[in-house]
Design brief:
Layout (H helix, E strand, L loop, with lengths): L2 H13 L2 H8 L3 H15 L4 E4 L2 E4 L1 H25 L6 E7 L3 H14 L4 E7 L2 H9 L5 E6 L4 H10 L2 E9 L2 E5 L12 H4 L4 E4 L22 E4 L2 H11 L3 E3 L5 H4 L3 E5 L6 E8 L6 H14 L1
Parallel strand pairs: 3-4, 3-5, 8-9
Antiparallel strand pairs: 1-2, 5-12, 6-12, 7-10, 7-11
Length: 299
C-alpha cells in the first residue's frame, strides 16, 4: 500500500469513473485500474463494483475509503509541518443529532482552521447513521445522547462498531416551544401541560426504534404527532402550530433566532450528551479542535 494508491482510490470514488479519475490524475487508465486491483488483492477486499453503468463503492470499499482519507490527511499535515509546503484542501466531517451547539462549534472550527481550501461536512442526521458514519470513517466524530432508557442499546451498538462515547455534559429535560406559545409564561412545564399540543420529533428511518429516538420519553403516548427530518422545519412548526419537542434545553439564539425558547420539563430523567470516536485510533488535529469548540459552545 502506498499513499499514491490511496489517492487514486479517493479520486476514483469522488469522480465515480475510472476514466475521469485517470484524466484528473494524469495517468493512463490501465495503470490506474492496476493500482486499484493491487490494493484490493493486498487487503483481500473489493473496493469498487464495476459494471457497464460505471463503478460504485462496496460497503467494505466505503470503510476502506474512510481510512484512506485519514491517512492522506495525516500525510499532508506531516508534509506541511516538516517541509513548509502548502497544505492541500482540508477535509472534515461531523455527524450529529440536531444540536445547535454542535453547529456553533462547527462554525468556529471553520473560522479558526478552514484556511484557503477546505471541504467540511456537517451532517445532522439519524442516530444510527451517526454511529455508522463514524464506524466507517465517513465522519471523524459523532454527537449524540444517552439516558437510562437508551443507554444499554446504544452502548452495545457502539461496542459492536468499535466506538467509544465521551460525555460532554448532563442536561435536565426541557421542551422547546415558540416564544408566543400558550405555555411560554410557565416556569416549568408538566407532561399534562403538553397533552393538548402537537409533539414534534425527528424521523429515524429504517432504525426507527424507540432506543434510537432523538427525544427522550419517546414511548409516551401523544394524540398529535409530527415527524420531521430537519431542524428548520421543526422550529417553524413549533412556532406555527404551538408544538413542542423534548430536548436538552441548549440553544443558540445567534444561530436559531429569538423565536424558540426552552422551558424545564417536570420529569425525573436526564440527557447525557457526548461525542463518539473510533476506539484506539489517534484523533486528527481538526477533531481535537472541534472537541475544544464543543466545550466552549457549551460553557
Amino acid at each position: 500500500m502506498t499513499l499514491k494508491q490511496l489517492s487514486y482510490v479517493v479520486t476514483v470514488a469522488e469522480t465515480g469513473s475510472i476514466t475521469e479519475a485517470a484524466k484528473q490524475l494524469y495517468i493512463a487508465q490501465p495503470s490506474l485500474t492496476t493500482a486499484v486491483k493491487e490494493l484490493e488483492q493486498e487487503y483481500c477486499i473489493t473496493i469498487f463494483h464495476r459494471s457497464k453503468k460505471g463503478i460504485e463503492l462496496t460497503p467494505e470499499g466505503d470503510e476502506f475509503l474512510g481510512y484512506a482519507r485519514q491517512l492522506l490527511d495525516q500525510a499532508n499535515l506531516m508534509n506541511a509541518h516538516y517541509t513548509g509546503t502548502k497544505q492541500g484542501k482540508q477535509r472534515f466531517c461531523v455527524s450529529a443529532q440536531h444540536y445547535s451547539f454542535a453547529v456553533e462549534a462547527f462554525v468556529k472550527l471553520i473560522q479558526a482552521s478552514g484556511g484557503d481550501k477546505y471541504e467540511f461536512h456537517m451532517r445532522e442526521t439519524q442516530t444510527y447513521d451517526i454511529i455508522d458514519d463514524v464506524a466507517h470513517r465517513r465522519s471523524e466524530i459523532g454527537v449524540l445522547y444517552l439516558n437510562t432508557f437508551n443507554e444499554p442499546v446504544i452502548r452495545k451498538t457502539l461496542r459492536d462498531h468499535g466506538l467509544t462515547f465521551t460525555a460532554l455534559f448532563r442536561a435536565a429535560p426541557h421542551v422547546f416551544i415558540g416564544k408566543n406559545s400558550p405555555l411560554a409564561k410557565k416556569k416549568e412545564i408538566s407532561l399534562e401541560d403538553l397533552a393538548p399540543y402537537p409533539r414534534l420529533s425527528y424521523e429515524q428511518g429504517s432504525h426507527n426504534s424507540f432506543y434510537f429516538s432523538e427525544e427522550i420519553l419517546s414511548t409516551m403516548d401523544s394524540d398529535k404527532e409530527i415527524i420531521v427530518r430537519d431542524r428548520a422545519t421543526l422550529f417553524n412548526l413549533l412556532v406555527g402550530l404551538n408544538g413542542y419537542t423534548i430536548c436538552s434545553g441548549v440553544i443558540s439564539e445567534e444561530l436559531n433566532g429569538p423565536h424558540i425558547i426552552a422551558k424545564p420539563l417536570a420529569v425525573d430523567d436526564y440527557m447525557e450528551i457526548g461525542y463518539i470516536l473510533p476506539a484506539n485510533t489517534p484523533q486528527s488535529a481538526l477533531t481535537e479542535k472541534y472537541i475544544c469548540f464543543l466545550n466552549e459552545a457549551l460553557a
